[in-house]
Design brief:
The complex is a heterodimer of chains A (about 60) and B (about 250). Chain A has strands at about 5-10, 20, 55-60. Chain A has about 60 residues and is mainly β. Chain A starts with a strand and ends with a strand. Chain B is about 75% helix and about 0% strand. Chain B has 11 helices and no strands. In chain B, helix 1 packs parallel to helix 5 (about 70-100), helix 3 runs parallel beside helix 7 (about 110-130) and helix 8 runs parallel beside helix 10 (about 200-215). The radius of gyration of chain B is 17 Å and the shape is globular. The chains are: A mainly beta (about 60), B mainly alpha (about 250). At the A-B interface, loops of A face helix 1, helix 9 and helix 11 of B.
Amino acid sequence: MARVAEGQLWICELCGYVYDPAEGDADGGVKAGMAFEEIPDDWSCPVCGAAKDDFSPQDDVPL
Amino acid sequence: MIAGSRHFTALAQRLRWDPDAFDFEADARAWPSLPPRRRGRLAMLVAGFVVAETSVATELAPFVPRAGDEATRAAFAAQRVDEERHARVFERIAMDVVGLRGPAAPHAIVPAALRELFEQRLPATAAALADGDASLDEGVGLYHMVIEGLVLTAGQHALLDDLADGALPGVRSAVELVERDERWHVGFGLRCLLDLRPVPDLVAELAGTGERGLHAWGEAVPAEVRRRVEAQHRRRLAAVGLAGHATAGSLA
C-alpha cells in the first residue's frame, strides 16, 4: 500500500484522502501533474469537502 | 487515493473527545426563546440523531469480525467507539436541551422514512452480514456511503447551518465534533470499498443513490443542503474511481 511518490503527496487530515499530483482531481478542476501548491485556494477535498488548509505534506501513502 | 486502516485507527485516537464534558445549561436556557417552527425543526433533527446514532453504534458490531485483516478490524472497532460517543451526546442534547425525556420521545417525532432506515433496514443488513448472507462491501456501501456520507452528513450540515448564529453554542460545538468524526468514517469506508473491489452493480447503485438517500429527513433538511451533500457524494466516489453509472438501485 505504501509507495514512494513521484511528486509530493498531501493528505487530508480529516478524512484520509491523499492528493497525488500524478492523478490530479479531475472533478475538482485539477489536472494531472499539478503540484498541490499550485491548486487554487478555494479547492476542497473531493472526499469530505475540507479546505486546502486541512491538508499536510505526506511522504508515502499511510498504511 | 485513500490512507490505509492503521491511519484511521491512529486518527481516531487523536480526535477522541468526551460527550459528558459539554455544558448545555446556556443552550437549555436559550431553547424556549427560539421560534416554535425553528424549535420543531431542530427537535426533529436532534431526535433523528438519537435514533440514528443509537442504531449505527449497535449495528456496526457485525462489521468488525467480517473485516479481512487485523488493521481493518481495529479501525471498525475505533469507529464503533466514536458512534457510541455520538449516541451519548445526542441523547444528552435531546434530554437536557430539547426536553425529549424517555427513550420513546425521540421516536415519536422522527420521520417514518428515517425510522425505517435505522430500525429496520440497517439492522436487517447488519444481521445478514453477521449470518454471512450479505457481503462486507454491501454493508459498507449502505453504512458508510449512504447512511454516513449522505443521510447523517446532511443532518449535521442542517444543524450546523441552523445554529450558525450561535443560538445554541454548546449544541453546535458538539455537532462540529460529530461531523469531524464522520469525515474519517466516510474516508475509511471508501478505503474498505477500494480493498473489497465491489461488483459493478453495487458501484452503480452507490452512484445512483444521491438525492433518494436524503429524503429520509423529510423537510428537516433544506433542499440546498441536500444538493450540496449529494454533490459531495458524487465527487468522492468519482475521486477514487467508484463513480460507476447511475441506476435505479435499492440502496436508498
